[in-house]
Amino acid sequence: TLILGLESSCDETAAALVDSDRRILAHRVAGQEADHAPYGGVVPEIAARAHVVRLAPIVAGVLKDAGVTLADIDAVAATAGPGLIGGVMVGLVTGKALAHAANKPLIAVNHLEGHALSPRLADPALEFPYLLLLVSGGHCQLLLVKGVGDYRRLATTIDDAAGEAFDKTAKLLGLGYPGGPAVERVARDGNRQAVPLPRPLVGSAEPHFSFAGLKSAVARAAASGAHSVPDLAASFQQAVVDCLVDRSRIALGACPEATAFVVAGGVAANGAIRDALTGLAARFDKPFVAPPLWLCTDNGAMIAWAGAERFAAGITDDLGVAARPRWPLDPAAEAVRGAGV
Ligand code: ATP
Ligand code: MG
Ligand code: FE
Question: Which cofactor does this sequence's record say it needs (predicted)?
Fold first, then answer.
């Protein structure tokens, strides 16, 4: 079974062809760093316009790379949310048009399910249920992944996402956009113990996250003029590592049924975070699974793979399906936003 996947929910325009045997026949990603860099972050209207310009050529490109035509594919999978609604609409309507033209089913993919299932594309041995730390630009959650479309959210952030914290810290340290890779690069030359910073929520019973106070503490430390940028970056990154490890430790303790500890999302590309989580999984005697770096940040292959998993489960969508700016993986958890989370 061959699936075409389209991704356009943020600032990557991407498409890929993936088959049900986990073969990635082709994938292309176009970032928009140059378009957004002058503004220090993603501008939704500019992102949507860039997707309009780039997506169709990228689709033509992956078909050419793989040496196939639309007639050879079995379904079209497109991100239908959550994300910046203008970009999501570009990808979804492109997917609908291609599905209609090829007379093939459409699969409306939740971008977060793309991240959540991407480790199974990379590792055929990864079985449900697994504990997932989903760390991306817009999300920071611990989820028990029980099956396709079947998620239990154990924790989320009460303020900023992990990637958001990296991006805001990069901005205030003058490291530019995109922030995560820049912070990681500069942190290599710094001392991670140089700057005392808080570890918000570490030690609390529920494995939720908080990063807003950490970012503010970095801002104060930077303003004091007492620290170098590499020391600030390294100390910030270490604080994030400590928070992720402590919170994941609670969740691992609560999920003995998990077959593995898995990390996904753009922040999962961070080497210090991957190393620390590897050690944590070993302490719980669980296999640790992290996708290759290119599969962590947004791409079309994860959307095609989520589409392949849904297609195998017999799930396809109507051409009238809507784009959704918000779309939780565990709607029940989202509905009981009790104590601020
Ligand atoms: P979401 O998936 O929540 O909708 P998104 O799609 O914008 O958000 P991703 O593409 O999954 O997010 O990840 C992008 C985020 O990952 C950015 O915040 C970026 O700074 C961060 N990131 C990327 N590489 C690294 C890295 N090496 N270290 C830390 N953070 C990183
Ligand atoms: Mg991006
Ligand atoms: Fe993403």
Answer: Fe(2+)
In 10 A of CB 56, how many CB atoms? 16
Alpha-carbon distance 202 to 208, whole Å? 9
User: In the prediction, which pLDDT does 178 show?
Assistant: 83
In this structure, the residue with its CA closest to atom 31 of ligand 1 is 180
CA-wise closest residue to 75 among 135, 148, 2: 2
| Whole-number pLDDT of residue 337 | 60
* Residue 270 annotated as part of some ligand binding site: yes
Residue nearest to atom 11 of ligand 1 (CA): 266
Q: What is the pLDDT of residue 248?
A: 99
- Model confidence pLDDT, tens digit, residues 69-109: 999 999 999 999 999 999 999 999 999 999 999 999 999 99
**Of 106, 118, 117, which is closest to residue 149 (Cα–Cα)?**
117
CB contact at 8 A, 163 and 138: yes
- Which pLDDT does position 341 carry in this prediction? 57
- Asked if residue 328 has pLDDT above 90, the reply is yes
Q: Which residue has the tokens 């790379």?
A: 65
Beta strand residue intervals within 138-283, DSSP E: 140-147, 150-155, 261-264
Which H or E element spans position 26?
A: strand 24-31
| Coil, strand or helix at 7 | strand
Q: Across-strand partners of 27?
A: 16
Instruction: Take residue 225 and report the two structure tokens written for it.
Output: 């003029």
Mean pLDDT of the chain: 97
Cβ distance 43 to 56 under 8 Å?
A: no
Task: For residue 123, count CB atoms less than 10 angstroms from its CB and return exposed for 0-12, middle for 13-18, buried for 19 or more.
Answer: middle
Q: Whose CA is nearest to atom 5 of ligand 1?
A: 137
Question: How many of the other CB atoms lie within 10 Å of CB of 318?
Answer: 10
ipTM more than 0.95? yes
pLDDT of residue 14: 99
Q: Which atom of ligand 1 is nearest to the CA of 11?
A: 7
Q: Does residue 339 have a pLDDT over 60? A: no
